[in-house]
Amino acid sequence: MPKTCFESLKDMEVQYLWYYDTVAILDDYSDSEEGVLPKGELVWISDPDFSETHILLDLKNQKELKKNQFAKGRITESSFLCKATPIQAIVTMGDFGMWFIEVKCT
Fold first, then answer.
1. Is the pLDDT of residue 2 over 60?
2. Residue 60's closest CA among 13, 103, 10?
3. CA gap 60, 47 in Å, rounded
4. Residue 63 DSSP SS3
5. In whole angstroms, what is the distance from residue 69 CA to residue 45 CA?
6. Which of 43, 47, 48, 80 is most solvent-facing, going by the fewest CB within 10 Å?
7. CA-based diameter of the chain, in Å?
8. Is the pLDDT of residue 24 over 70?
9. Phi/psi of residue 66, each to 5°?
10. Where are the alpha helices (DSSP H) in 1-106?
11. What integer best gives the mean pLDDT of the chain?
């Protein structure tokens, strides 16, 4: 079944989130950073039940967002002991309902 995509209607402050998958002897852990999801970015809902007040979004434009939103080296892409998962964004349900529209996935 195709994913339902949404487009952001304005630049929006979000909390970016990613996890580090680690070798079996280390605990997996997450990291986050505040940033701005640019107007026109395509996203889809990763976990609508993430919390009672927020929605977790997957991001289509990973490479460009990493380049423009994070200092070089901020995210450990890959090392011997761990590898970062794709970046996600956390937005409030209110912001999602007001500032995202459903679009055809491309």
1. no
2. 103
3. 15
4. helix
5. 20
6. 80
7. 43
8. no
9. -60, -40
10. 62-69, 93-99
11. 84
Instruction: Specify the DSSP class assigned to residue 106.
Output: -
Predicted local distance difference test score (pLDDT) of residue 1: 44
**Token pair in block for residue 97:** 């309902």
Amino acid, res. 27 = D
Specify the 3-state DSSP secondary structure of 91: strand
Give the number of C-alpha atoms closer than 13 A to the C-alpha of residue 32, restricted to the C-beta side: 9
Name 21's Cβ contacts closer than 8 Å, sequence gap at least 6. 28, 82, 83, 84, 85
Where do we find the tokens 């996600």?
88
What's the pTM?
0.81
Give the residue from 24, 14, 18 showing the smallest Cα distance to 76: 18
Interacting residues of 3 by C-beta distance below 8 A, sequence separation 6+: 44, 105
Between CA 51 and CA 105 the distance in angstroms is 25
Find tokens 């434009």 and name the residue.
Answer: 61
Give the separation between CA 93 and CA 18, rounded to whole angstroms: 20
